[in-house]
Design brief:
six-stranded antiparallel sheet, mainly beta
Length: about 110
């Protein structure tokens, strides 16, 4: 299976989760942190097949409950990069690279 990158959404950092939900555009993000180990990136992703009544915002913990990273984070709070890819079951799959949300789609074509 091959993956093709689709047009990216350039995101901006929002003040907080409420601002992200109420005013955010696709690709926008914000951070919350309860302690040094509880850094979470909240991301507004493109709507998909999930419940459309629920805001398309997802928390991405950058440190797990066990203290191990869930996603590698480059530390850039204005234009973050995460790896590996972000998969929101039944809705969206892609990458956050330098503040740009880049969707991928599966292709049966192995030549790209």
């Amino acid at each position: 299976m091959n993956y093709k990158a689709l047009n990216p959404y350039t995101g901006s950092r929002r003040k907080n989760v409420d601002d992200l939900i109420e005013n955010g555009e696709i690709g926008d993000f914000c951070f919350t942190q309860d302690s040094e180990k509880d850094l979470v990136l909240w991301l507004k992703y493109p709507p998909g097949q999930r419940n459309e009544d629920f805001p398309n915002v997802v928390p991405l913990p950058l440190v797990s409950l066990m203290g191990e990273p869930c996603w590698d984070f480059d530390g850039n709070m204005e234009s973050p990069t995460l790896s590996p890819s972000i998969l929101i079951q039944g809705s969206w799959h892609g990458y956050l690279r330098e503040g740009k949300l880049i969707a991928v789609m599966q292709s049966e074509d192995q030549d790209g």
